[in-house]
Amino acid sequence: MNIRLLHKDEQPPLDLLLLADPSLKLVNDYVVRGECYVATLQQDIVGVYVLLPTRPETVELVNIAVAEMYHNQGIGKELIKHAIEMAKKQDYKTMEIGTGNSSIGQLALYQKCGFRIAGIDRDFFTRHYEEEIYENGIQCRDMIRLFIDL
Ligand code: ACO
User: Of the four, 99, 101, 119, 142, which is 20 to 30 A from 132 by CA?
Assistant: First the structure.
């Protein structure tokens, strides 16, 4: 597997990006404001993430996604490790990541990669998304904010 920056003349893999965030508006905004990296196997794009500068010395890892047929093969972890290395190279000091209270697998993955919970943005999803979201039989209401020192 190869992980590389998306070329300037390449289309971002919207189908994958939308797996991580159903809002096309937010996805388009992140891709323009951030750096989009893709994981490829042969010529196929199988994973994606975006590094989004937020505050001085802080970057947020947004829109991380792996194509469904490649889930649970370690690609998500590789993408997170790669993102951390890219952020360190650019002298960021903190990386943040946020996910829903119902995203049990993602919360496990991020903590396995060293992220710690920093806070909860209560009712983030009920305020910002029109449709109700359910995962694992739990309504997604709150944004769990996590961070890692680089
Ligand atoms: N309990 C405990 N551990 C879990 C659970 C769970 N319920 N679910 C997953 N995990 C662990 C696995 O055990 C594994 O850890 P291990 O290697 O120690 O066993 C790890 O999480 C999964 O690791 P990977 O195989 O590297 O992950 P994968 O390649 O499947 O990618 C991803 C994970 C990106 C979240 C993928 O499932 C995906 O694309 N989901 C849809 C999009 C999405 O939800 N993206 C995140 C949105 S939030 C954001 O972008 C900031």
Answer: 119
* Pocket (CB within 6 angstroms of ligand 1): 19-20, 61-66, 71-77, 97-99, 104-106, 108-109, 112
Dist. CA 3–CA 13, nearest whole Å: 14
Return the SS3 of 113: coil
Alpha helix (H) residue ranges in 36-148: 75-89, 104-112, 124-128
Q: What is the CB-side half-sphere exposure of residue 126 using CA atoms within 13 A?
A: 9
Please state the pTM of the whole predicted model. 0.95
| Residues 99-110 pLDDT 10s | 999 999 999 999
**Cβ-proximal residues to 46 (8 Å cutoff; 6+ apart), any chain:** 1, 39, 40, 66, 67, 70, 75
The residue type at 59: V
